[in-house]
Amino acid sequence: MATLIGLIIKAFSRDRCLKDFNKYPVALVLTDNESACGRCSLHSTGLELLYDKVTEKEGHPEASFLLYKSEYDRIFTARRYHSTLTEEMKKARQRILEKTYHPRFFRRLKRRIRNLFSSVKDAILEAFNMAFGQMKTRYGQDAALKSQDKYLRRIGTEAISSAATSYDALLERQIGSKVVVEVTTPDKSKIFFTGVFKEYTARFLEIMDVETKEDFSIDYSLSGEKSESGLRLSFTEGRLAVSNDNPFSVHIRELIQKIPPVPGEQEGAEPKEVSREMHIELEPGERAELELSPEATSLSIKAFSQRICDIIFPRATAIVRHRSEFKEGLGLKDFLPKF
Fold first, then answer.
1. Do 232 and 280 share a domain, yes or no?
2. Kind and range of the H or E element at 149?
3. Phi-psi region of 224 (alpha: psi -120 to 50; beta: other; left: phi over 0)
4. How would you class 257 by CB atoms within 10 Å of its CB: exposed for 0-12, middle for 13-18, buried for 19 or more?
5. What is the pLDDT, as a whole number, of residue 122?
6. CB–CB of 179/30 below 8 Å?
7. What span, in angstroms and rounded, lies between the C-alpha atoms of 39 and 25?
8. For residue 297, what are the domain limits?
């Protein structure tokens, strides 16, 4: 029976924040700048991101990316972009968001019970140990029971710990409210994200409906066709065609043309860079044509995208710093028994 209980606990014990992203497309960014994107398959011992297709990397094929539970400290962010979700996924996510904003009775009751376990976890463990001690006193130090002592205590601890989590009264009040999360990057700088506070565990914070701005640049040598970051570039007769193949809009903010030095100038001179500020917004599937200088031999495009996503942050690097709306979250009265 103890073995069966242990197997059940291990099979179903998964982080509640990560469990919300299970079976959804997820973009994972690690603290060492390694990244992976794929459909999340979460297990009690870690997670796997399943790619859409097999890719060749460093001389070997890859169909997925595995991150073990012991490596969760490497996570910087896990993102679920709304633009990558199917209609069915969007509806399921919207139902979850609605429950977060307006939790029903049984959802609140379940959370109160879990918080009660968290608050008195030490007392429950002490009661378990006392009951186990009484059982030994009643039946004596049977050899078989004595050999299982350590194992049974561990099973009881796992059972109670799985029901209880790291309860935080201050964070509990923010659930369902818009908050500002302060994140410390690997280079020790601070960045801020605003969204709806969905959930927290001992290791993670989960924020929904976060609007993010992501900068990127593309270098192009004005030959052939190039696709990068969802933009397709092609050069014909002095004009650059830029097509947006992303499912979200992209803003082109700067075009930098590189012009080689004129013959007769100082030997070894660097190409001259001519920068032009731009304000071009490309919707999904749209195309724009840019006129270039005849002397340009290569260029760089600087752009950014604004996307809405749900993000999981590790609590080791992220904290809820502000509430950004006047809306009462769950207070102490929500966790006291009602008669």
1. yes
2. helix 143-163
3. left
4. buried
5. 56
6. no
7. 4
8. 214-305
Dist CA 333 CA 278 (whole Å)? 54
Find how far residue 9's CA is from the centre of its chain.
Answer: 25
pLDDT over 70 for what percent of the chain?
71
In terms of domains, do 258 and 269 share one?
Answer: yes
236 shares its domain with 298: yes
Per-residue pLDDT of 273-299, as tens digits, reads 889 999 999 999 999 999 898 888 899
In a domain, 136, yes or no: yes
**Same-domain check for residues 183 and 266:** no
The answer to whether residue 34 sits within a structural domain is: yes
Does 99 fall in a domain?
no
pLDDT, tens digit, 9 for 90 and up, residues 235-247: 988 889 999 999 8
Q: What is the pLDDT of residues 59-78, one digit of tens each?
A: 889 999 999 999 999 999 99
Q: Which of the 8 DSSP states describes residue 330?
A: -
- Degrees to nearest 5, angle at CA 313 with 310 and 319: 115
Whether the CB-CB separation of 115 and 163 falls below 8 Å is answered with: no
C-alpha to C-alpha distance for 307 and 337, rounded to whole angstroms: 42
Looking at the fold, whether 76 and 159 belong to one and the same domain comes out as: no
Indicate the number of domains in the chain.
Answer: 3
Report yes or no on 242 lying in a domain: yes
Whether 185 and 294 share a structural domain: no
Residue 205 contacts by C-beta under 8 Å, 6 or more apart in sequence?
Answer: 17, 181, 197, 199, 312, 313, 314, 315, 318, 320
- pTM: predicted TM-score of the whole model, two decimal places: 0.72
Per-residue confidence band for 164, with pLDDT thresholds at 50, 70 and 90: very low
- The pair of structure tokens assigned to 221 is 């040598």
Neighbours of 311 (CB within 10 A): 25
Same domain flag for 274 and 235: yes
